[in-house]
Amino acid sequence: MEKALGSPSVGGSYPQKNAEILSSQYGINLFLAGLLLTFAWAVHAVGISKSHLLSYLITLMLIQLLWMLWYLCRSCTQRRLIRDKDTHAGARWLKCGITLFAVITLILDSFKIGYYVDFSNCLSAAEGIFPVTHAVHTILQVYFLWCHAKDIIQSFKTLERFGVIHSVFTNLLLWTNGVLTESKHQLNEHKERLITLGFGNITIVLDDHAPQCNCTTTTLCSIFSQGIYYLYPFNIEYHILASTMLYVLWKNIGRKVEHHQQHKTPFKFHGITVGMIFGLIVLISTIAKVVVYLIQIGRSKTKSELALTMFYLHAISVLALMCTAGIVALLIYRLEDRSLDNSKNPARKLDAELLVGTAAGSWLLSWGSILAIICAQAHPKYTWYNLPYSILVIIEKYIQNLFIIESIHRKQEKVNDDIKTLRIVTISRGSTLSLTPSYKEVYNGRAARGNGELPCLLNDSICARENDGSGGAKEEISQANCAAMHSAPDFSFYSRNSVTNNKRRILKNIAAFLFLCNLSLWIPPAFGCRPEYDNGLEEIVFGFEPWIIVVNLAMPFSIFYRMHSAASLFEVNCKT
C-alpha cells in the first residue's frame, strides 16, 4: 500500500530528471560545436573564417535574448505571485561586480564598433553586427540577473531548463572566444620578445589576423586596437561570472527549499584595518611591479632578466605571507568547535568545485616549471627563483582552498539564550541556593522570581530581592557580598566572549588580507605579465609549441581562480 501511494511522486520526478539530462546534453553539444569552430578559426582551417564563428555566436545570443524577453514578460504578468527564492544565490556584491565588468564590456564593444568603422572596407558585416548584438545582450542579461538570479523556477520547468542551459553555454563560448583572442595577442607579443632573452633558435612566426587594408583614421585605429586588448580581461571575467550565476539558476529549477530566515551579512570595514593595510601595500606594490615589468621586458636581455627576477622575488614574498595567514586561520578553526552546514546549496557547492577545478590550471603550470628546472641542462640565474615560486603557488592554493571551503560551510554563530547561562548564587532565608537562569532572564531580572528571589543584575553593583515579609534584615545585602557572589561567573562569561571576538577579528583581517592579495595576483596575468611565456626555460625543455599550448589552456583557469577566490573571500569576510 505504501509503495502504491509513493509511486506517483517517484514517477513524477522522472520527467524532470530526464529534462535535466536532455538540457545538459543539449548545452554540451552546443558548446562543443562552438569550441570546434573556434579552434578551426584559430588554426586557419580551410573554409573557416572569423565571420563564420561570429555568425554562430550572434545566433546563440539572439536565441538567448528571445528567451530572456519571454521570461521577463511572463514574470511581469505573474509579479503578484509569491515565488520561492534561493537566498544564497545572486548576492548583492556579486551583482555589483558583474555590473562593473559589464560596463567595461560595453566600452569594449564601443571600441570594436569604432574599429569596424575604420576598417569597414575589408571586414565582414558579421564583425560589425557582433559588437552591437553583444552590447544589447550584455545590457539585458545584467538586468535579468539583477532581477531573477535568486529565482527558483516551478513552472514551465522543461522549457526553462533548455533556456537557462543555453544561456550558460552561450556565455562560456563568449568567454572562450575572448580568451582565445586575448591569448593570440599575448602570444604574438611573446614571440617578438623571445629573441631578446637569447632564444634565437625558436622560429618566430606571427599569427596575424589583422585586416588586409589601410585604416581611414590612423590615430583612432591605434587607440581602438590597443585599447581592446587591455579591456579583454574584464570581458572574460564578466562572461564567466554570468555563466556561473546562470548555472546556479539552472540547478535551482524545480528545487524545494526550506523556508527559513536568512541573516544578512553586510560588509563592514570596522575591525579589519590591519588586514586592509597589508593588503593595500601588496596591491600597490603589485601594480608598480606590473608597470615596471611591462616596460622592461623585451628591451634587452639584461633588462628582461632583471624584470623576471623582480617578478619572482615579489611573488615569493606575497605567497609566503598568504601561506602564513592561511595556516593561522586554519589553526584558529581547529581550536573552535563549531559544526558545519551540510544542507543542500547549489551556489556553495559550485563555489567549492570551481575553487579546486580552476586551481588545477596553476598547478599544471607550476609542475611544468618544476620539471623544466630539474631537467634543463643550463640554468640562467633568474630561473632558480622560479623553483620556490612554483612550489609556493601549489602550497598556497592548497591552504587557501581549505580555508575558503571550510569557511563557507561553517554555520554562523548565533546567540542562544538557552545555552549562555550564568550561575547565580543568592542568599535566601539563611541558605545558599545555586541557580542557572538564562542570560536573558538574568538581564531582565525575572529569574527565579517564583521562589521570591531576585538574582544579581549585571549592570548594577547592588543585589536586591523582593520583600517576602521575612523582615528587613534579610532584604539588604552588602555590595561586597554581591560582588563576591557573581564576579567569578561574570568574569568567565566575559573572558570567553572576549576570546571569541578576538578570534573573529583575526579571521576577518586574514580574509580581508587574502582578498586583496588575490586581486593583486589577478592583475599580472590578466594584463600581460606572464613569466610562463617569458622565462624561456620551459620552452627549451618541452618544446615551443607544446608549452605554449599548455600555457594557453591553463592560464585562463589560473586567472579565473584568483578572481573567484577574491569573491569567495569577500563572502567569508561578511560571514565571519
TrEMBL record:
<keyword id="KW-0812">Transmembrane</keyword>
<feature type="transmembrane region" description="Helical">
    <location>
        <begin position="311"/>
        <end position="333"/>
    </location>
</feature>
<feature type="transmembrane region" description="Helical">
    <location>
        <begin position="506"/>
        <end position="528"/>
    </location>
</feature>
<dbReference type="GO" id="GO:0005886">
    <property type="term" value="C:plasma membrane"/>
</dbReference>
<feature type="transmembrane region" description="Helical">
    <location>
        <begin position="53"/>
        <end position="72"/>
    </location>
</feature>
<feature type="transmembrane region" description="Helical">
    <location>
        <begin position="540"/>
        <end position="561"/>
    </location>
</feature>
<dbReference type="Pfam" id="PF03189">
    <property type="entry name" value="Otopetrin"/>
</dbReference>
<dbReference type="GO" id="GO:0015252">
    <property type="term" value="F:proton channel activity"/>
</dbReference>
<feature type="transmembrane region" description="Helical">
    <location>
        <begin position="354"/>
        <end position="379"/>
    </location>
</feature>
<keyword id="KW-1003">Cell membrane</keyword>
<keyword id="KW-0472">Membrane</keyword>
<feature type="transmembrane region" description="Helical">
    <location>
        <begin position="26"/>
        <end position="47"/>
    </location>
</feature>
<keyword id="KW-0375">Hydrogen ion transport</keyword>
<keyword id="KW-1133">Transmembrane helix</keyword>
<protein>
    <submittedName>
        <fullName>OTOP1 protein</fullName>
    </submittedName>
</protein>
<keyword id="KW-0813">Transport</keyword>
<comment type="similarity">
    <text>Belongs to the otopetrin family.</text>
</comment>
<feature type="transmembrane region" description="Helical">
    <location>
        <begin position="93"/>
        <end position="117"/>
    </location>
</feature>
<dbReference type="GO" id="GO:0042472">
    <property type="term" value="P:inner ear morphogenesis"/>
</dbReference>
<feature type="transmembrane region" description="Helical">
    <location>
        <begin position="229"/>
        <end position="250"/>
    </location>
</feature>
<keyword id="KW-0406">Ion transport</keyword>
<keyword id="KW-0407">Ion channel</keyword>
<dbReference type="InterPro" id="IPR004878">
    <property type="entry name" value="Otopetrin"/>
</dbReference>
<feature type="transmembrane region" description="Helical">
    <location>
        <begin position="129"/>
        <end position="146"/>
    </location>
</feature>
<feature type="transmembrane region" description="Helical">
    <location>
        <begin position="271"/>
        <end position="295"/>
    </location>
</feature>
